[in-house]
Amino acid sequence: MIKRMMIQKRYTNVGTNIEEVKKLNRQSGLSYNEVKNLLAQRYLDPKKSN
Q1: pLDDT at residue 49 greater than cutoff 80
Q2: Can you state the percent helix, strand and coil of the chain, rounding each to 5?
Q3: Which of 1, 11, 13, 27 registers the highest number of CB atoms within 10 A of its CB?
Q4: Quick check: 9 and 19 in contact, CB under 8 A?
Q5: How far is Cα 21 from Cα 35, in angstroms, rounded to an integer?
């Protein structure tokens, strides 16, 4: 028998589902800092820019 973990839904004061926002953010692609780091790496070492 598999026990299902019950995910407690958390909401902000205005009713935003925090877990849903986190899920959508994970699916949205690179973050600002990830893009900034990627560009810096490619600028510093152009041989790595595939």
Answers
A1: no
A2: 50, 5, 45
A3: 11
A4: yes
A5: 20
**Are 18 and 11 within 8 A, CB to CB?**
yes
Among 10-14, 20-24, 33-37, 46-50, whose mean pLDDT is lowest? 46-50
- Written as six digits, the tokens of 20 are 């849903």
Q: CA 19 to CA 4: how far, in whole Å?
A: 17
The DSSP bridge partners found for residue 8 are none
Q: State the SS3 of 1-50.
A: CCCCCCCCCCECCCCCEHHHHHHHHHHCCCCHHHHHHHHHHHHHCHHHCC
